[in-house]
Records
---
Amino acid sequence: MVDDTIPRRGFLLSATAIATGLASTVQGDAQTATVSASASSPTPIPAVCAEPEVMLALTATEAAFVSAAVDAFIPADELSPSGTDCGIVTYIDRQLASAWGGGAKTYRSGPYQKGKPEQGYQLALTPKEFFSAGIAETNEWSRMTYGKEFDRLAPADRISALKAMEEGKAEFIGLGCKPFFEALLAVTMEGFFSDPIYGGNRDKAAWKMLGFPGLPATYASKFDEYLAKRYTAPPQSIADFS
Amino acid sequence: MAVRLKEIDAVMVGMGWTGAILAREFTKAGLSVVGLERGPDRTPGENFTLPSVRDELRYAQRLELMQDNSMDTITFRNAAAEMALPIRRFGAFLPGEGVGGSGIHWGALHWRFQPADFRIRSHLTDRYGAKSIPEDMTIQDWPVSYDELEPHYDRFDKLCGVSGKAGNLKGKIVPGGNPFEGPRSDEYPNKPIKTSTPSLMFADAAKSLGYHPFPAPVAIASAAYRNSEGLTLGACEYCGFCNRIACEANAKASANTTIMPLLRPDAKFELRTRAFATKLIYDKPGKKVTGVVYTDLRTGEEFEQRAGIIVLSSYVFSNTQALLLAGIGEPYERPSGKGVVGKNYCYQFEAGAEAFFDDKEWNPFIGSAGTSACIDDFNGENFDHSGLGFFGGGYINSGPAAAPPVSGRAVPHGTPRWGSDWKRATVKWYHHFTRFNTQGSVYASRDNFMDLDPTYKDAFGRPLIRMTYNGTDNDHKMSRYLLAKVEEIIKAMNPTHYEMHPRPRNFTIVPYQSTHNTGGTMMGSDPKSSVVNRYLQAWDAHNLFIMGASVFPQQHGYNPTGTVGALAYWSAKAITEQYIKTPGPLVHA
């Protein structure tokens, strides 16, 4: 349990560097930051980062986990920066702190019973509580299996851990590994592809990758011309229209 | 104790499509009307505006326009032997909430049922013999014919500014439209929406196989349109933000754009939002509903609104629940098969496919529900079912309305779902894939029904409605047959790769499938076999009129809203021309 005492600040610094627009070599810095998160001593704070990014819902341990997971889901490569550098940790944190994260628009009366898969989600946990429980379970399983928490694993082990969860083979004690994996993947993809107004898809990286031009005012005058010809335009987000 | 309010002529429970249509017809007839709506008010000028309306997360993922499940929900089980559990958050279907109801976020595919659909049991009996209909298939003839409804279909078309191409004008088959449709008295109000590249490919392939493709009919105006109420609708912008989202162009018809601008300033009409109706006050000996009890969600106060005419114009589940709670009509029971309220619940049986083309490309984000092409060759009784082992069918259509980035991407099965390989595949295929859908009918089964849940309650302590539903053998066979036709067409399109998505054996409440729930308060020709008569008047309460797809005896192979709107106008005519002069049963049992 010694690991628990080590502050997890690596990803927070990276995120701040991006947010302040001072990281010109986005992918390189992010990779450095990700590696340093699994090192055994805290990373010194670079001079450019006056404040670490403040989380609304995630604890430092949870944020480090989410950062490691979204970087495995969305690795930095020729197509986009890493999930963390796209703001997905910020996105997930804000979503879990939102009304949705608190269980809004959800029927929350008992009795709570384990149903058939056909009956959908039947837990009393809100999304925020569900993610907290899932992260704790994953870290516990990771410690048992690999001797360390998930975010402290080498990148290749993170990938094999996530694959085991995806295939339902990770032996979680309480919460099912597969439902948690699916929720984590879904919220990551939401963060990657949603409007940047929510904190993810920073610099419209996912839309640029996909060739999605964002919000149009109208395509009525373009329909015929672009029937079978690719339409490309710098993506427009909600903020660009506001 | 509820505060009793001054009696008015008519009260609407729910202000979606049907509440708005009836309120408008009633005030024109001089009646004073109150519209109760559990959700918020929504206006095009305030809520359907750029840029916030084009927000996939807020509307399509977080479901801003949908009913609040923290207030109430539905419990679900696949079979009567199971324990039903609450749908804690909507998934398979998404009933709307607020002024405009589900008619804001709908895809706006706008269809009429077939003439044969309205007399389905008689038709199948005549064509295949009475013994051919399985014993557990509880289908019924509608108590109204296509010809009777046609003027009302036409009226609803002109309210919505529907775009499409007629295939049958007054009995004459017209090139370019659906040759299988019932005779139309008039052409569509607007020309079809433009067809997308993958839909043009679908149409060519279907034609090469001898089928009859035509552009999808949609309640989305292809050009600026002055509707039957004198209101101007905008032209489709092909923005790709249709489903689950309001239309910024005011091209996709909703009650908010087509009727409400006239009702709002109408002195005869009063809108009360955040007014959650909890009870119909039933005078059983008098065969009347004297009023509606509702809670003002803004203050917590309870009111009793008395009215001469009560219109139940909420969604399928709430309509059925309201009758069961008030004790109006005999509840349906299994296994005895007695009773009618809750009977013949149906859920549109859709299934689809995807195809990928590495040698062709298009812009999947440009589109609307109307950029699709359809064939109707395998719907209803448009084809011979002899020896097939099932009844029913559905139309087949191509092309997703659009491919928004969170929910509208596709990669071939077997591709990793994350990591760099997933990214490369996502980018590779985004401009090169399309989808197909089959709008399968549901021929009601005695085993699929709604009743009150014995365990779970809503925010007001009322029992939730419970649905017991699973796909029947008939419907699965029908769906597989339609998918085989889809596969034939896809092969003729010569894709690089394709995937068929047959329905899983068991119905499941996730993921999203269709918001076409029907039945529970079905219409019919006598009180033994139905809840409302041919004018949608309750047999057991002559001043109660029930709107919406809850009155469908079964669901046919088309989207329901066209028929819901036509029935609303049909009922409104009977009420304003007959009922208000001499209140009482419009049909004698």
---
Amino acid sequence: MSIAVKGVSKRFGDFVALDHLSLEVPSGALLALLGPSGSGKTTLLRIIAGLEIADNGTVLYQDADVTDSRVRERNVGFVFQHYALFRHMNVFENIAFGLRIRHWPRARVKERVHELLTLIQLEGLERSLPSQLSGGQRQRVALARALAVEPKVLLLDEPFGALDAKVRQELRQWLRRLHEEIHVTSVFVTHDQEEAFEVADRVVIMNKGCVEQAGTPQEIFEQPANPFVMDFLGNVNVFHGRVHDGRAELGSLNVEYPEYTARESRAATAFVRSHELDIERVRNGRPALQANVVHINPARPVVKVRLHAVEFGISLNVDLGWERYDELKLQPGESVYVSPRRMRVFVQDYQVQGHQVPDYQI
Amino acid sequence: MADSTTLTRSLAAAHEDPPVVRAALITLALLVMGVLIVVPLVNVFYQAFAGGVGTYWKNLAADPDTRHSVYLTLIVAPLAVAANVIFGVAAAWAIARFRFPGRTLLTAFIDLPFAVSPVVVGLFLVLIFGLQGILGPWLRAHDIKVIFALPGLVIATAFVTFPVVARELIPVMEAIGAEEEIAAVSLGAGSWQMFRRVTLPNIKWGLLYGIILCNARAMGEFGAVAVVSGRISGQTDTMPLRVEKLFQEYNMPGAFAVASVLASLAVVTLLVKTALEWKTRSDLAAAAREAAGERA
């Protein structure tokens, strides 16, 4: 069952939560709505579910217009951040709730609930109350409850947001495997880009009620559409400078920029990911910045080096491979040269996607 | 753990008043309670049973007007409570679950019956439903009697006790939140199914507490009922009115016998209320713990 959202807007008083937003979720996809808080991702999810009414625009399930149908007519599974389990019912009754509403016969309810208990690996806990379960167990029960009625789409609102890091990690992988098993079209909201990239097969990046970019995790990571996406994905160093005549000048960093050949100089922002920076002891002809090593965090799998770029007055973060780190034997306070292997330049009002700086051979 | 207990103790000690002040305050509180509550309560039972159990029973059961007042109270109070359960749940629902224009006003209005003297409430009702009242001609044309009749008693009692149920439910519903209800709807439940299967089980202790308290207030209501009833013996006298009438007639044993029934009701209410309060508090604490656990 595919989902299509067309030109949906939603305001809360003066606040524009969604601004003529359109989106497609292919059938069987596991899609992540990723964005900072206030970007409208939860509102969009609630509109897809029918828990919120859009001011205008339409929502389609496959070819059926469901814009005006209410949540209980849409047959969706909804999973809440805080689980929203029925506190006075045990695990069995929680999962059976939707089936009882649909007047399933007793024997089939029992069969279906046990099927789901096996799926969420909580056999034997059916008589427990939600208050007796851990956070991760509760969220799995909530998921089973949503899946019990065989929903056409599964919608999850920050499903791992209330869990601690380790449980979150386990549940993510479990959700991924679960989706491979049951293939129900799923949309989940998250503000954690790592989570979105790890779990989803499609990611939609939202900002201020609009879609900034939609695509597979790889597409988004390799070809960020604009500075917002680049910045939001994080682990990135930002340089401000100007472009003209096919070159970008970022302080003493002067690189080729064939996409912009006009004489007129324009402001530009360059993004370099932490792992795309190299550290050298001596200048070797490649464009490089002088910087002082401030801090070394030898975390695995990469060594995180923080430097101070004297000229820009900014901090640089460099992820160094262990082999390179052992070779360099960096010490805090040392003066070194930092050179980008690859950078993406965005010119204001003239955005070019993912510019590749030619690899400078040593 | 031991450290924090010691710390709490030393902090408490730092905030404590000198023993003399404490003893004085406690004595004062006990004295006031003894004089104003315990002594009168014991006295009611002492006076009622002064002539022995036989006389007590005769005072209660032999007088047809007294019998009728008990019967009338047993009709009026449950009807008023039933009306207030419906109003109270609806009002608490509206206030706890929705943000709408006039919400603050509604919240204020719920408390109005507590703020206005019951006698004034009675007069309001006479002005509306009385023969010379706004609805008087229409009611007379349709041969409906409200004032000096059962409907008036029920309306007056319900009005005066209106805030009790809503006041109990609003904090409970706010603490529990709407998420479980939304979850129920997303699973296909209709409004009534959602209310019966999810909301009601969650608020049942608070609701029961509200009902008990409301019932006690309804059975004891005097002022508003006195105005609208016309105080016709054997017809519109409820128990509190009957107590007063017997007292005015210098029938002390009779007055105290009926009063003792009302007083017993108060004692039972107090016991049930304490038990339910304890239950509601532990439920609320559990809800708060759960919410805190989720946030952590």
